[in-house]
Predict the structure.
Amino acid sequence: MKLNKGKIILFILILAAIWFTALNIREAAYITSRYTSVSIRYKEDGVKLQSLKAALEMEKARGGSIPEITAWKWVNEVTVYNNSLNRSSQAAQIIAAGNIENTAPMSIIQGNYCFSGDYHGCVLDSETAYALFGTVNAAGNRVTVNQTDYIIRGVVKTSFPVILVQGSNETIAYPNLEFVYEGRDREAGEQLAAGFIMQNGLPTGYMIIDSFFLGKLLGSALCLPVWIFYLLICLTAIVYFIRHRKSFTTPSFVLYGLTGLFTLITCGVFLYLMTGAPVYLPYKIIPTKWSDFNNWENLISVIQNQVNRLGYLPPNSRDILLRDELIKLPFKITVPGSIFALIYCCVILYRCRRSSSHPG
């Protein structure tokens, strides 16, 4: 009876571990795919498109690293009208110039995002689309905002009602900029973005958040418990197999060894495909000397400062989500980590009891 209870508890723990791990992996994939930029946040005013285009031309002439830049502005609330059905709904408005995907945490569920220069299209969230049209499949329909008509290009899933449009007015000051660098420049994005602003005469009253670094760090940390559990299982299986090698014949030792090794490698490859690399090590984490512990202290201080800055910025969904994820990270690591530890202890305890009951 005790054994059955133990198996039931172990089964429940395994289900809980799978559940929390799946949630963390899904969340890690979402964060790393959405936070790929260095974020510039202006407390007042911002940057006009005219200045931004001139800066890009200067950077090209200089031969520097050319980022993809998205400028955007968050408008707290507008009324979106469906004139054909005489319906209306309230939503936040995001005016963007560039890649709309970089402005807010969302995922496309129908249609497409508005490309840069599409001033007649818009993107709606599913809640607003349903309120206006009675269905989330609203792409191709028309809506009106501030006496301007837009064709719905796509519908997205978000945690808040929103309408996204491309900005056509080059005199608008955009308080939010997203710098996306490619290749090796991504790791140095924070320094490159700061240099871009300084060298090209753009306004300097800003805060800089390395969203790419923080997003990658979050994604790696969320998947760390399952990697530690996997490596612990690998080590335990290898040690157990070596200790009991005398109980096998030479052919069976080789056969079981190769089979076990193939299984462990297959599981590791599958885990890598699901989560990516187990540890994220950008150049800023690695000190020039391994005895230079001040480097890590400074890095932790930088991360803490950036998290604190997010709390003082004008609220927008992108920064709020990133800050919330960073704050909740210890809890999201501890829970699955504790469950994995309990599972491992239960398995070891079961093996010990079995070995003591069958000493031969």
The first helix runs from residue 2 to 34.
